[in-house]
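Example 3.2
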Amino acid sequence: MSSSDWKMAPRNVRRAPGAAAAVILVVAIGVAATATIFAVVDALYLRPLPGVDRPAELVNVHATSPDGSTFHSVSYPTWRELAADGGPFSGLTAFSSRLVSVGTGGEPRLAIAQVVTGNYFQVLGAKPSLGRLLTPADGSAGAPPAAVVSEAAWRDRFGADPAAIGRTVLVNGRPYSIVGVPAPGFTGTFLRQPFDVWLTIGGAGPIAGVNAESPDRHWLELVGRRRAGVSLPMVSRALAVMSPRLEREWRLALRRRSARRACARIGRVSPDRRVPGRERAAGLESGADFSFRRPARGLREDRMNGLLRDVRYALRTLSRSPGFAFVAIATHALEIGANTAEEP
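Structure, written as tokens:
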């Protein structure tokens, strides 16, 4: 660039400030968008899940409804059946997130908890940095309530004190004994999700907010680890074979529960009494029978599919209200670009 260009640039800006502002804004959006795209690609394909062993072997398992929609959660009994069968998985875990209050002796604060099956850390191959992690024994009936706190929460709320292991933390007013801290940065199968505490489904009780044994309460996400030599197409075929049996068992469980309720309303307690009309109503009210007939996907592929859904939604919004969408995109892109540039 010559010296004359430096002289002409301020003059052009003074002559047409609006055009100059538009050019600067477009360039800023382009830079921010480029940085954002790189950050997304880095998160989806380049950066590994912290604290997770061999994440390429992990597979998201979603239920599919009869209308073809997928990414549905499943019930606890469904997870139990799939985990007991094993099939293509060396391990299958289930989990759900909850907003809770956590008290450590002072004023309770809001936190994000993951309610998980006892084999959660085992399936992910996570290792503790202090103490131990949750095990299937912690989720069994009669086990003392145990909790794992994140490394960030351990530092923030306990001052990185090793003596925090064994102390009691109140989650929604219920006491839990802290048994361990996972590796720094561990967030399970989610990147940058600030989980503070992990509890087992059996030990969470009312914190989960659902009847875990209910067959029509679809509230859990599933992640399985593929056995050695098992490909994603093989996982899909195995789940498709298991799906009809799970559907039959799901329908049977609903019928039994409906019959018990109907008998209780008329003063009878025999669980074997059949009330066909009520059974049909229960099947309709529950929504739909879920199956696993869609191809299995890896964790990174699922994250990319979620990104594509967001892009499609953004394009629909842009077509309906282009002016508002342009201002929102420009502001958001500049903010994301600035935040990305600040990261080490």
